UniProtKB/TrEMBL annotation:
Organism, as annotated: Triticum urartu (Red wild einkorn)
Protein name: Uncharacterized protein
UniProt superkingdom: Eukaryota
Length: 65
C-alpha cells in the first residue's frame, strides 16, 4: 500500500517496435476458419496512419484485408 506521508516516484515506460518491423498475425493463428483480418504492415506505416486521423477513428480499418 502506498504511504501518504512519504514521497514516491512513479515512472512510465513505453515500448514500440523499430519502424521497419512488420506487424502481423502470428502464422499459427491464421487458418481457413480464422483468416487474416488485417494485412501485414510496418510500424512506420501504422504511425503515419495514426498521425493522419482523429483519435475517434479506427486506425486498423485502413489495414483490413
Amino acid at each position: 500500500m502506498a504511504s501518504t506521508s512519504k514521497p514516491r516516484l512513479s515512472a512510465i515506460y513505453f515500448a514500440a517496435p523499430a519502424l521497419h518491423e512488420c506487424v502481423s498475425a502470428l502464422p499459427e493463428t491464421v487458418t481457413a476458419d480464422a483468416p487474416r483480418r488485417y494485412r501485414p504492415f510496418t510500424w512506420a506505416e501504422y504511425k503515419k496512419t495514426m498521425y493522419t486521423l482523429r483519435l475517434s477513428h479506427n486506425r486498423l480499418d485502413l489495414f483490413k484485408v
